[in-house]
Amino acid sequence: MITNKKHKYLIKLRNITIVLVIVIVTSSIVFNLVTSISPPKIDNMEVLDLEREIYDSNYFIVGNSWLRKNAFGLWEMYLEGNPFEIGVINGKLTKELIKQQEDSFVDQINTLVPSKGYLRFLKYFIAWFNRDMHKYVPPEYIEEIYGVSFSAADNYEYIGTKYERMLNYHGAHDIGHALQNLALVGCTSFGANLGFNDSSFIIGRNFDFYINDEFAENKIVAFVKPDTGHEFAYVTWASMIGVVSGINKKGLTVTINAAKSDMPTKAKMPISLLAREILQYAGNINEAIAIAKKREIFVSESILVGSAEDNNAVIIEKSPGGLDVYYPKEDLLICSNHFQSDKFKNEPNNLEYIEQSATAYRQNRALELLDNNDTTTYEDAASMLRDYNGMGNKSIGIGNEKAMAQFISHHSIIFQPLKHDFWVSTTNYQFGAFLNYNLDTVFSKIELSDKGEIIYDSVRTINADTLTINNELASINKFRKLKKVLIDNLNNGTDIKNKDKFINEFISVNPDYYQGYVLAANYFYDIKDYDRALDYYKLSLSKEFENTTAADNVKNKITELESKVR
User: Residue 373 has what DSSP assignment?
Assistant: First the structure.
């Protein structure tokens, strides 16, 4: 009897196991079928047979296209052809740079998410989240990304196929934005001299997208001659065909800034690819708006569009649920990280973000700086983008998110749309030299008969801000190095040698920044030195906080500690 019961139990267990295995295998097959993204079909793939010529270690040629590094460390690239050809040639030219970019990106992900289990979850989450992204992207950009993917590295197949990775990376900003609302931490852009009849109309922007130092080492200024649409230039990195800052031959400029978003349920068109479409196909503001209206995106974004034809600029504010346009009320326009149009300005999400974040403060600081000039020159614009102070020139700490310059910019750029001119920052965030390019001049020199010929205008270079590089930049670098040591000790629960000396040095290197005092307080709280923790928390409140959440956390700690030390 017992044996019979045991036999029945084993049969039941076997059947349950079989069912579970079938469910798991079926689920896995269904998941892979649903999330697998097939590459596009290309009729003519002869471009894959082209060989890259190596002129020297910093100069490569494929057909009529080329990539080279200039004396200031900026990569300059020229591309032409149909979408697939442009993608393949882009990949062949930048193969080593693609590997470096992906290495730095994956390294940072591993640093932020050290748990292998959570990384696996993240991989499957992103695969599911992005399962339909390709359906919202114009076929020509799918083909171009596919072309680039042939040059992707072989050692990240565990993340996805080369094509899937290259496509998904274009949504990285949007996904980070959706998950954390801080993908572009605190970008600021502005337009000035709007409507002036002297061709002085100007646009400036800081692209504050920071992954790690390595990610920003190889900026590329790309000049593209597609077989359809306008010739254009944009600042990018290897494998990125989307646009975050660019100008076309019609004198139309595009820059993007993140805004507060709700959590989306799935990916649609990445915002950088929408910006690319506007740059490639719009010749004026109305055409830009029409393109933005017909596409679906999955995070909220502000797109500042400048137009030589209109001698004006607007902000296209687009969310997953709609679109509105903010028009300038004077001769200037400022865009930070909140919406300003009638449709969106009073939405609860937007109002909450204005109240809690640095966006309104930074916008007011930009307005204060613009008001200093009757006519803003390109030198004035560079000074604005390099400004690291608060309202009224108050020192608010180096690296404060409320400042225009937060010492994290991937690049800064200045446009003069009517003249087809733009200036791009080189090194040391926005404090190195800015190089001037003129679209008409560059596209007339694409054959580069003289291999040593420069394509930027050396006469109009904006010189590096060596004073800031030698002082404030050196200080923030030291602050960040010491901050890492302090955070590592906090995370590991270890003590710091000569802690009093260390804490004093840490705070003194950036004395007006609230963060140093808060981290010092956190350290003393962790080692149960509550009196000193309380002192540092109170000191931090005399500084300019970046957001109300951080300030509220400190106030709560003070309340808690005051009851402990009584």
Answer: -
pLDDT digits (tens, 9 = 90+) for 432-455: 999 999 999 999 988 765 677 899
CA 77/CA 58 separation, integer angstroms: 11
Sheet with 434-438, strands from edge to edge, namely 333-335, 188-192, 202-207, 411-416, 421-425, 434-438
pLDDT confidence of residue 446: 84
Round to whole Å and give the CA distance between 185 and 207. Answer: 9
State the average pLDDT for the chain. 91
**Global confidence as pTM:** 0.92
| pLDDT 10s digits, 208-250 | 988 888 888 999 999 999 999 999 999 999 999 999 999 999 9
Q: How far apart are CA 317 and CA 259, in angstroms?
A: 9
- Phi and psi of 66, rounded to 5°? -155, 160
Task: Assess whether the region 48-451 and the region 471-565 belong to the same CATH fold.
Answer: no
- β-bridge partners, 392: none
pLDDT of residue 222: 98
Q: How far apart are CA 224 and CA 141, in angstroms?
A: 14
Q: Do residues 234 and 222 make contact, with C-beta atoms less than 8 angstroms apart?
A: yes
Q: Dihedral, CA atoms, 212, 215, 216, 217, nearest 10 degrees?
A: 110
Query: In the predicted model, is pLDDT for residue 129 greater than 90?
Result: no
Q: Which of 93, 88, 83, 90 is nearest to 61 (CA)?
A: 93
Name the CATH architecture for the domain at 471-565. Answer: Alpha Horseshoe (1.25)
Give me the CATH code for the 48-451 domain, please.
3.60.60.30
pLDDT tens digits, one per residue of 303-359? 999 999 999 999 999 999 999 999 998 999 999 999 999 999 999 999 999 999 999
In angstroms, rounded to a whole number, what is the distance separating the alpha carbons of residues 521 and 278? 48
Measured CA distances, 231 to 251, 429, 435, 525 (Å): 10, 27, 20, 58
Which helix (H) or strand (E) element contains residue 54?
Answer: strand 53-56
CA neighbor of 333 nearest in space, from 356, 354, 306: 306
* Helices (H) then strands (E): counts for the chain: 19, 17
Whether 156 has a pLDDT exceeding 80, the answer reads yes
Transcribe 181-234 into DSSP letters: S-TTTT-EEEEESTT-TTS--EEEEEE---S-GGGGSS-EEEEEEESSS--EEE
C-alpha distance from residue 556 to each of 29, 264, 284, 547, 562 (Å)? 49, 32, 51, 15, 10
Give the integer Cα–Cα distance in Å for 228 and 429.
34
Residue 182, pLDDT > 50, answer no
Note the pLDDT tens digit of each residue in 22-42: 544 443 434 444 456 889 999
What region, left, alpha or beta, does residue 212 occupy, with left being phi > 0 and alpha being psi -120 to 50 degrees? Answer: beta
Domain segments of the chain: what residues?
1-35, 48-451, 471-565
Closest CA to 252 of 223, 285, 274: 285
The residue ranking higher by pLDDT, 184 or 553, is 553
